[in-house]
Amino acid sequence: MQRQEQKQVQQQQMTQDLVQRLPVLEADRLALTFRLARLARHNPNIHVGSGDLGWIADAASAFEEKLFTQIREGSGSETEKELRRQLVLLLDHRGLLPDTNEGLAERFGIDVSQIEQARQALLFLEPTGIGARTERECQYRHAIEHEDPRVVDVFDAIESGVSHQQMASALAISEEELARLERIVATLPKRPLLYEETGHVYPEVEVCVEDGELVTTWLSPELDETCVGNDREAKWWMTSLAMRNETLRDIWAVIESRQTEWLKGELVLHPLTRRTVAQQIGKHESTVGRAIQGKFAKTEGGIMEWRHFFVRSTSHGHSPFMIKRTLAELIQREKAPQSDQALAKELARYGYLVTRRTVTNYREELGFGNSRERERQLWKG
């Protein structure tokens, strides 16, 4: 009986450990490097080796100093301010604080109410959403601060399960206006703005063709093992990064073997699903989904999101990515702008059977105007 209880405790600890490592797997290269740069400011045993981004250390320093300044200038005792500073150091790569109050209270040896008070103080700092427990709570903070006060009302109504009709009636607004507010709620930031957006994408892997063969170079961040020593935090991160990078390499190996033609510059994507990859690498399908989000690859055809290598249909590749790519090529080649209906017919010639509405949505996502707008651009030269 005692042995069985010990086994259950071990399994629970293993599960908790994996849950703690999941955010590391989910993080993209930029966010992860930013988090490591923050850790390196306070722990000399953490030093990024390969995969580093030179400018990120300064950004990490400026981010924390901005928060520390707000804490220093805010109200509260020195003890309370110190606790807030300690919580800042625990913010994950998203700028969120998903740890439970109970876990944090045990870690610092204080009362749960003190943790909650410190957490609430963080929520009033800039950038908006800092220290939120979840991405949804971060969106709520943005809703509160939105210039239109009805946004938070709609947010609360959605969370409470209020029907569309009831919302419109309670707010005394039209269905169209409610739809607009709902779109605002749906697009509220899920994370605080930790650093200025650079507009650049930082790929995890670079693939080029040399003498007809694919050559793969990995750019994922890794710790310098010579600095780790016996430091517990540094060892945890080294293990977590190693697990992350191993999973990404396993997934990419399947992608590369399946989509070799595309990686060599041919416009061919073969059917590939997350389930197939999961079965081949011995992971759960959800793990594959978590791992590929926000990951990019630099290829012969440019930088591409990993998720676009997953195609649901036949050799034509009836994925949104392939349809959008073909649509973009059609629009870029046209001498006289065509209507969305005409473009739908053109796509059908390539084997892509989509509705006019789908063409409209994809065209707008690609940043192309309608036929009249494109015609005006042609006249302007």
From TrEMBL:
Keywords: DNA-binding, DNA-directed RNA polymerase, Nucleotidyltransferase, Sigma factor, Transcription, Transcription regulation, Transferase. The keyword Nucleotidyltransferase applies. Residues 232-376 form the RNA polymerase sigma factor 54 DNA-binding domain. Belongs to the sigma-54 factor family. Residues 58-217 form the RNA polymerase sigma factor 54 core-binding domain. The keyword Signal does not apply. This is Fis family transcriptional regulator. InterPro entries: RNA_pol_sigma_54, RNA_pol_sigma_54_core-bd, RNA_pol_sigma_54_DNA-bd, RpoN_core-bd_sf.
